[in-house]
Specification:
single chain; 361 residues; alpha/beta; Serine Threonine Protein Phosphatase 5, Tetratricopeptide repeat; Ubiquitin-like (UB roll); six-stranded mixed β-sheet; two-stranded parallel sheet; 8 strands
Length: 361
Amino acid sequence: MALLMAAGSEPVTEREREDLDAIAALKESSASEFKEQGNKYVKMGKKHYSDAIDCYSRAISQNALSDSDQSVLFSNRAHVNLMLGNYRRALMDAEQAIKLCSTNVKAYYRAAKAAFSLELMVEAELFCNSGLQQSPANEEMTKLSVCINSRRKEHEHKKNELLKVVNTAKELASAFRTRGLKLGRAIYQELTGMKIPFLDESGILRWPVLFLYPETMSSDFIEEFCETDLFSAHLDMMYSEGSSALSWDNEKAYTREAIELYYQADRGVLLPETKVLEYLLQETADLLAECVCNEDEDGVDHTEILSPSSSGKWIKVSERKTLNDILRHPDYIIPAIPVFFVVSKRSRFYNEFKAGNWSQP
């Protein structure tokens, strides 16, 4: 009997040939029945999609139909997977359908649609173009081709814009490096928001700068402090005759003549260049991984110099210096943006501050 034949052996007797033909016909019939039942389940709606997939899978497993008919089965299963949102499975089935029958237009459409849903625009375009070669007047394929081209252009535009942002960030990081600046982890972002410096057309750095009054932990914020500006110029404007007095300064201690600026030396967490880029690309961090993930860190030690509860030495800022003069000090770690502390020689807090009895919270 044919059922007792060894695998791979050829039928010898007429009876064996008849048995094999009968088995093949039975499998072909089963495959066709499974296919038709799968089609019925699809028409019955989403609740029966899993049953449809099971029927198509059973039909495929019979391996009894011609390549073109097997291609239809894979294409049908791809169709159901598309409707279920199983795009990766749909793409695999559609690709298999195309391998079995290179003229299966529906398979090309479903492969293109699955690739489009997976944001695989290059593959989607290739499948769509191949389908249109088979059926140039296919309306669904033509509509999908328009969508693919539009999405691809959007992706290219977005990527180009993001790459511009990345290149700008790299230019900034290079400017920090050539100036010998040390950028550290942000400390006071709750006061400043996500502000970053920028290079103007002349290649000059313009920084957002925070002035903190440690006596009350209130603050002033300068949006653009040019690196070549003297501190005295900004302080003159901040404490000009027409400017408003500090609301909490009841003793009127904070006058132009009485104030002094300080920064805290050797305090902060140094960042390697990749982390600097992450800071500069705060809103485009996903692209950063793609653009710079293969770059090695620049070897800068980014362990904490002092613990947050410790205080480094307070260094007085000369008003006759430019911002860049101060930022280049080897003991100054910029906490994302420059931060300077304002105290008054006339304030009772001054002696406490100078004695080292106050530290950053």
